[in-house]
Design a protein that fits this description.
By secondary structure, this protein is an all-beta fold. It contains no helices and 14 strands.
């Protein structure tokens, strides 16, 4: 982001910049589970609070996260398509289109994720993601059935 490499630490509850001397904490976020760069803005999802948060603007990190949308069940995947977020819930498998004003529309549902098999695994389920190609097709990972779903540009 800008000239920095930014990452989320789900179990560490933070967003970090990866630096030569080690990670530098930028923001505390409850179990951040995704990162998405749109133009000069940066977004993450909080697995615990169920929110989509803006954490950067104009290629600069914000001092405090700004809630863009809320009410999700364990959001894990985050993508961008035609001016809207595409959000994949890990718990339910629901995939939503979400406007910048927070309006949600359910697009489809894929297989739900599974709980961690042991306390040694991360707090979330095995990561369930979503991506969008240049044509607007949505791709979603199917953890429990070991597939990659593809939906046309208008699912």
């Amino acid at each position: 982001f800008g000239d920095d490499l930014i990452a989320t630490e789900h179990a560490g509850n933070r967003v970090i910049r990866l630096a030569q001397g080690g990670p530098v904490e930028l923001l505390k976020i409850e179990e951040p589970s995704a990162l998405l760069k749109v133009g000069g803005d940066l977004y993450t999802a909080s697995w615990t609070s169920g929110e989509i948060l803006q954490i950067g603007a104009n290629n600069t990190m914000l001092a405090q996260a700004r809630t863009v949308a809320s009410g999700f069940s364990r959001p894990e995947g985050l993508a961008w398509r035609n001016g809207e977020f595409i959000v994949r819930e890990g718990d339910s498998g629901n995939i939503f289109a979400v406007t910048m004003t927070g309006n949600k529309k359910l697009l489809t549902t894929v297989s739900a994720g599974s709980a961690a098999a042991s306390a040694a695994q991360p707090l979330s389920m095995v990561f369930n993601d979503v991506a969008v190609d240049a044509a607007g097709n949505i791709y979603a990972s199917g953890e429990t059935d070991r597939v990659l779903y593809r939906f046309g540009s208008q699912p």
